[in-house]
Amino acid sequence: MDDHDFCDPAERPTYNGVIHDRQMAWLANDLANVPQDRLIVLNAHIPFQTFTDTRARKHQTDNLAELGEIIGDRPALGLSGHTHTTENIEPGEHYAGWEEATGVGPAPFHQIVTGALSGSWWSGNLDDAGVPEATQRLGSPRGYYRLEVSGTDWIDTYHSFRETPETQMHAAFSTPRVRDWATDLMACADLYGRPSEVLPPVTRTDLGDVNMLTRADLEGGTRVAVNVWNGSMSSRVSVSIDGGAAIEARRTQVGEGEAKQRGPAYADPPALARQSTDARVAWRSAQGGEATAGYEMFRGVDWTGVPGPLPRWLLTDASQHLWRADLPADLRAGVRVMEVRTTDRHGRTFTTTLPFEVVEEMPQMGWQSDGWE
To answer: Could you give the 3-state DSSP secondary structure of residue 128?
Structure first.
């Protein structure tokens, strides 16, 4: 029925992304009666192509090449889910693994992977409303898409449950100490997995004040990392400090057939911070006992242990919509304000501000008794 090893009935078979021959025949017959200038919207669960699982065959559509031939030059938009991530993939975008997994390298039509209301499967700590943070693997917060369609054109907007519709991104600093912290965190997740009973080498609190930059941070290479939740190849991102000249940010993935860039240097600091210390796995009560210990992430899978990172595959160590800009090493000391600006493929501009402080050395952050005795 399916020649993939993972679909072998003798080997605990699983699912596979493929369009059945009958569906292909139906679509070809249907489109024969549809004018060439009509927008074709394709809906599927498993993505046609995905950055999240670039090399995985079962998480993408095997016979995308055949589908692309049927669609041809028609205006088309593909919508999918499954990965619980947001991805805005423009025609021609391409990553290593796609051709082997789907039969097509460059994306044959525009595709949007729309995420999931549960984010990363309701994982992580609870927010102020008592809902799991569940930050997505590519760094976006939980949310949903709004599509406004007119003829063959559409405007896609991502709405976060935590922010106003005008908020379309978050930004943070990737300093040498943040990257060292991320290295230790990822090594722990690689070695022990999660949930675990092993005390992790670092937690969120070991980051200290991430918006305070030392001279050593700047001289060692500090970047601004900007995650534009619905960003695409056409998005433009820049930062400016105290109203100064704009510094153009570069997308970490250019989408020209390269492999996924992963690791501390390509991580999203705010997303990784949220994912680094899952304290809810340690919750216990005298009344509930083991029945209410920790929490259930997947159906029938209980997560208990000591506070630590989410599993390695859930950590935002790469993203299709992350931009970086290098900060000057000679920034003067003092409190500064950074404005981050992005313009999307529709020409809409969104901004956010990030106050920070430059210090020569990191001050003692705990209680100081001097002056009180």
So the answer is: coil
φ, ψ of residue 121 in degrees (nearest 5): 55, 40
Cβ proximity of 339 and 247 under 8 Å: no
Of all residues in the chain, the percent with pLDDT exceeding 70 is: 99
Question: Measured at the alpha carbon of residue 263, what is the angle toward residues 211 and 297, in degrees to the nearest 5?
Answer: 85
Helices (H), 209-268: 215-219
- Which among 250, 257, 228 has a CA at the least distance from the CA of 321? 228
pLDDT tens digits for range 71-80: 999 999 999 9
- 147: closest CA among 139, 156, 159, 138? 156
Cα 309 to Cα 247: distance, rounded to the nearest angstrom: 33
pLDDT at 373 over 80: no
CB 268 within 8 A of CB 322: yes
CB 169 within 8 A of CB 228: yes
Q: b/e per residue, 220-247, with b = 16+ CB within 10 A?
A: eebbbbbbbbbbbbebbbbbebeeeeeb
Whole-angstrom distance between the N-terminal and C-terminal Cα of the chain? 79
3-state secondary structure 146-171: EEEEECCEEEEEEEECCCCCCCCEEE
Each residue's pLDDT tens digit, 98-117: 999 999 999 999 999 999 99
Written as six digits, the tokens of 248 are 């153009």
Please say whether the beta carbons of 6 and 13 come within 8 A: yes
The CA distance from 70 to 95, in Å, is 23
Which pair of tokens denotes residue 246?
């704009």
Which tokens belong to 144?
């949903």
Neighbours of 255 (CB within 10 A): 18
